[in-house]
Amino acid sequence: MLRFMPVGDSMTIGSAGEHTWRYRMWQHLRATYGGPFKIVGPRETLYDKSTGSPDSHEYADPEFPRAHLAGWGEGWLHMAPVIRETVRAQRADVLLVSLGLIDLGFYTNAVQTADNVRVFVEEARAANPRIRMVLLPVIPNVRAESDAPFAAEVAAFNELLGKAVADLDEPRSPLLLASPPPSYDTTFDTYDGTHPNASGEHKIAEGFAEAMHQAWDLGDPYTAASA
Asked: Whole-angstrom Cα distance, residue 175 to residue 95?
């Protein structure tokens, strides 16, 4: 059984009442993977925007397997120290990682964030030397549209992320750089300029799904109808 673990920030954990891109990916894998799999992770909750609580269980589909390693306001800086123990405990085989916006916005510059990516990869492999990882670049967001220095940091980090993937990729523990979601638009694919709406959820899931299909022949090409 292949065990997938989503790792991310607020765009991955999602808010009360949402499906999340994790749900879209689960639906896609159910429809196209063709083998047993499981979504794993130590956390299950959503973020409740109305109360500020990170402990909501109000998923749009209560049947959705809720496990993940994601947190509102968390980034590579926060996940690198915990990924080894989490991979070991959850017996994860594939990490689907969407991180970076929080780091660049509040904690670290592009170079420091890329250094934390490398630590994250090393720590994940320390727990499972054959783990596979798909890393999503920082996707379009409203701050980058209005803050030129921040946009420059995002661009610099995405370039460094690609270099890290190329440097660290190895046959027994492959790394993939997912392509940014096609035609992702902060006006039409988010509800606040950053967090994805249903359209954005599909596009983020598509980025991960297409990378795995093209590189590993895992699942079929992504369609919204299958997710």
From this structure: 10
